[in-house]
TrEMBL record:
<protein>
    <submittedName>
        <fullName>Cytochrome C</fullName>
    </submittedName>
</protein>
<feature type="signal peptide">
    <location>
        <begin position="1"/>
        <end position="24"/>
    </location>
</feature>
<keyword id="KW-0732">Signal</keyword>
<dbReference type="InterPro" id="IPR036280">
    <property type="entry name" value="Multihaem_cyt_sf"/>
</dbReference>
Amino acid sequence: MKKAYWNYLPLLLICLAFPLVASAGNGLGIKGSKHDFSGEDWNNGTLQYGGEVCRVCHAPHDRGLDLWRDADVSGLLWNHKMSTAEYSMYSSNSMAGTIEDQPIGRSKLCLSCHDGTVALDAFGDGPNNGNGDMDTALTGRFVIGALKDGSNLDLRGHHPISLQYVDNDKIGTNGGLHDPADQTWYDLSSVALSLEQGRVECHSCHDVHNRVSVPNTQVLRAGIREGQGGAEHASLLCLTCHNK
């Protein structure tokens, strides 16, 4: 009996250690994250649904049905006003894979706040929604580069979104792309599952419902600097997909 115990001890130790490894890159939930607006002045209880975390983006009983239909997504109960802007999309002679003429799916949801054309408090059906302009509401903390005030809708200086990744011609080639079906993020979730219709979108790199254990990391699915977890984190986000 004692011999059998020692035979199984290494396996037991591996099983006990695995959750620690798997959770090393996990986020810590939306509360306290960049997307927790419950403490913002414009969401302090003066609106019909003020002070809530989730309702800025989601409605629990289909109030946002038409909104998420407009965004070509389902099941998200979207509750925030959509942007009607048109963007200059990324283009490059070296890029493989098709890119949509305009953002699709959940990237449109992200841009409904981050393109600078819609106020953060433009959600639900409260009587005071959408009073502030985006620049004032964001106070420079949640914006995407030159999109800050909504006057520049040029996405060509940002990583492409709505770009085909699955079956991309560069998969497996030297200096190209890894197969997303074979890759995992730092928390061991599948890269393929973070795509939408086989395309790279905003949420492919950003886990929008999590705050990571290291501050100021832009809710990324993996590290980009050594300071986010050691040398193995240097450009880990990029190298998870890019075969360099």
